[in-house]
Amino acid sequence: MNPQMLHTACYRGFYSTYEIKDNQLLLQEMVVGEIKGQYPEINGVEPKQQDYGVYYENLRLLTDFTGVIRIAKELIDTLYIHMGYQKGTAYNTLLELKFQHGNLIDIRDLSKQNTRKRGAFKKSIEKTSPLNIIDNSFDLTFDDLLEEN
C-alpha cells in the first residue's frame, strides 16, 4: 500500500498498535489511508471502513523489525513538555527492548539510570530558543539519557 495523509495529526497516513507475545513483536491493529483506495486482505484479515481510511484488527502479524524500542510509564507531570514527544527521563519507569527480525532478544531496565538524568531535558530546553525547543521536542533519538547537561 502507498499511504496518504489521513488528517493533519497523521501525515504518514497510518498508525499501528503492536503487542509483544511469546517474545515476538506482532502488528495487531492498523489504520491506514491508501492513495488509490486499494486495501488488500492482510494476514487473512479484511479491512473495515471508517472515517479516515480503513481499520485492520487482530492481525497478529510478526514484524521484521530490528532495533530498539523504549517503553515508559508513570509520566511525571512536572516534566511534561507541551509539544512533541516526551523524553524517557520524564517517566518513572523506562524499559529498553531490543529486537532482531521481530524477535525480542534483550530487555534492559533503564529506570535507575533514568533517575540520575531526571528533568535534564526539560531544563535544557528552558535555556534555548523556541525553534530549538520545537526541534528537540520532536527528536526521536535516545540522547536524553546519554548527554550530560
Number of distinct beta strands: 8
Structural class: alpha+beta
End-to-end Cα distance, whole Å, is 43 Å
Question: Main beta sheet, described?
Answer: 5 strands, antiparallel
Percent strand equals 25-35%
> What's the tally of helices?
3
Any descriptors?
3 helices, alpha+beta, three-stranded antiparallel β-sheet
Q: Could you walk me through the main structural features you see in this protein, from its secondary elements to its overall organization?
A:
By secondary structure, the chain is of the alpha+beta class. The chain has 3 helices and 8 strands. The protein has helices spanning 111-116, 120-125, 130-137, and strands spanning 14-21, 24-32, 48-49, 54-56, 61-62, 67-75, 91-100, 103-109. The strands form 2 sheets. Strands 1, 2, 3, 4 and 5 form a 5-stranded antiparallel sheet that branches. A 3-stranded antiparallel sheet has the order 6-7-8. Strand 1 (14-21) and strand 2 (24-32) form a beta hairpin. It is globular and about 50 Å long.
